[in-house]
Amino acid sequence: MTLAFDPQWLSRYPAQEPASGAESPCVFCAIASGELDAHVIAETADTVCFLDHLPATYGHVLVVPKQHCQDLFDIPEESFQQVMATAKQVADALRDSCGASGINLIHATGQAAHQTVFHFHVHVVPRYDGDSIVVFPRLADPARKHEVAQRLRTALLTDPLPSQAEAESSQP
After folding, report:
1. Which of 61, 92, 106, 148 could pair covalently with 123 via S-S, beta carbons 3.0-4.6 A apart?
2. 158 pLDDT exceeds 50?
3. Active-site residue 53, yes or no?
4. Among residues 60, 107, 119, 121, which one is catalytic?
5. What mean pLDDT comes out for the span 99-128?
6. CATH assignment of the domain containing 128
């Protein structure tokens, strides 16, 4: 399946300030509660899935927790796991029903990452052969790999990944 992509109709989401109490309404909370119309495609007890109103490709879906969480640093682990499990199911459905030949799971935390709605969400973007979307433009200096690897190793020694901590605690 080859789909043409015409970017002329695209416009940016209006920037939404991070929620700072009841005076800042959250568009995704309004969708999750049914107060705002969206093309909802699925719902679980903890998540809601709906079509992106400015889709990158045919079938572009957002998966959001019903509970308001601002971003990756704010979402509880259990909610994160539920969102990711739901995103996997949506990806399978996109492959089976829309003929997607690939999938990108995309998340942005913070304005520097171009987060525009400050409610945690994952984009499930179906990819089609020849769609010409560039997700990673490769702008970082590869000569600095050693430096960044060392910084990350040090940080992860201080706060180990769950599997690292389990492995270390099981050794005599």
Report:
1. 106
2. yes
3. no
4. 121
5. 96
6. 3.30.428.10
Listed in order, strand segments (DSSP E) in the chain are 40-43, 47-51, 61-65, 102-106, 122-127
pLDDT in tens, 94-105: 999 999 999 999
Number of domains in the chain: 2
Report DSSP state, residue 129.
Answer: T
Domain housing 162: 140-172
| Statement: residue 162 has pLDDT above 90 | no
Query: What sign for the dihedral angle of Cα 102, 68, 29, 22?
Result: negative
Distance in angstroms between the alpha carbons of the first and the last residue of the chain: 56
**pTM beyond cutoff 0.85:** no
Amino acid at 146: H
Structural domain includes residue 1: no
Average pLDDT rounded to a whole number, residues 15-28: 62
Pairing relation of β-strands 47-51 and 122-127? Answer: unpaired
**Residue 90 falls inside a structural domain:** yes
Amino acid at 65: P
Q: How confident is the model at residue 53 (pLDDT cuts 50, 70, 90)?
A: very high
Asked whether residue 84 falls in the same domain as residue 24, the answer is: yes
Nearest residue to 128 via CA among 99, 167, 156: 99
89 and 161, same domain (yes or no): no
